[in-house]
Amino acid sequence: MTFSFGIVMIRTRRLLSILDKLAKYRIFGWLGWAFLAITVVSGAFMLWLMLDQDYIVLTGSLALRCAIGAATASQCHAGGYVVQPGPSLQAYLLLPGINPFIPIVYGIIGIVLAVVIHEGTHGVLARSFKLPVKSTGVLLFLIVPIGAFVEIDEKLIQKSRFRNSGRIMAGGPGSNIIVALIALVLLLALIGTLVPMQFNGVYIGGVLSPSPAYNLYQSHQIQPGDLIVAVNGTSVHSVSELSAYMAQTHPNQTLVLSISHDGQISNHAITLGTNKINSTTTIGLIGVYQTESNTDLQNIRNNYANAFFSKPLLYLIVPGIISQADQVVPFSNALHGFYTSPTLGSYWYPAALTLFWIWFINVNLAFFNAIPLYPLDGGQAMLNFFTHFGKKWVEIRAKAITTAISLAMFAIIVSFLFLPRILGLIPLG
Length: 429
Known about the structure:
The structure is a single chain. With about 425 residues, the protein is α+β, with helices and mostly antiparallel strands. The protein has two domains: about 1-190 and about 360-425, no CATH class; about 200-290, Roll (Pdz3 Domain). It has 15 helices and 15 strands. The protein has helices at about 15-25, 25-60, 60-65, 75-80, 105-130, 155-160, 160-190, 210-220, 240-245, 295-305, 325-330, 350-370, 375-390, 390-395, 400-425; strands at about 1-5, 5-10, 135-140, 145-150, 195, 200-205, 205, 225-230, 235, 255-260, 265-270, 275, 280-285, 290, 340. Helix 2 (about 25-60) packs across helix 7 (about 160-190) and helix 2 (about 25-60) packs across helix 15. The protein is elongated.
């Protein structure tokens, strides 16, 4: 056991027998090729993603730049926009307790599982190719587990053929992707079984202040949890129906709301406020928010459960961080109370969060480690490739080529993190 700056490393040889037992299964050798393909694709995707964001930031509209903090306050005010601060640098770290958006308990579960799988796969593949593993161990910050490690002789890996060393290095990111996909599939299966709350009307989550609805709230005529069942005698069964009706109204128009409270329906005449849609369109305002209906809840559940191929980026929306989650993620802060599970009851919610954070942390850890930047897994695989493939001059200059590519990757990562912040300080014309 060693201790340095709060980090505790516990090494042991007792787990090596487990690696040896797993290494006897030939499937890991075949999986290694899949892991290598996954790592190459993941690294290319990360490169495209970072370059694409830089391009969007540099060529985007003033509205976009103000929304991500890539413009000065004077520029945004002149254009009629409000400048929004970009995410903090801590938000890019997958460390619960440091990243302000990752919940401690779910984050620790996700990161520990991700690192154990990552390092364990490196060890199993190394042993399947008869390379020695010095030890295994766990990492703790004080008493909190934050990861695991497998000590492999890097010099021996570099001396081995790329068909072996490449698969060993790719084992970490590749296995993380596999675990992430398993967690995501289980999450979608769970979401698909959820039963939404049954009610006939539009659920009122809250009221805006000031607004016509707030006036009714102050006089105890409506409460959060009540239902809007009709507007001027026209029944509404979904938020889209209510929105379509309100799109035809105008400010200061008198409107009769039919409100259901504990099954009792009462009618309330209100004078609509002003809802400015854009610079040219203004409609009437009731002043309710977090509105849901049974139809909407079913659509949200179905869209999330069935978007694997059509909208895969939907699964990167983090509940509790991005406000959009409250309209599209069934286990978001605003929506989870509207659902129950016929098998898990109310326990479906922590189960869904556990699966989500396992998916989210594993897939992000995999993509990051797949970047061709030494000493990440992608960078080490790249060095081994140049060392054992190509013409003789490529092999001789493998370290120089790897260093040059790594520096380029590092520059792209820096631009990805800091370009919006730099532009936010420069008063461009």
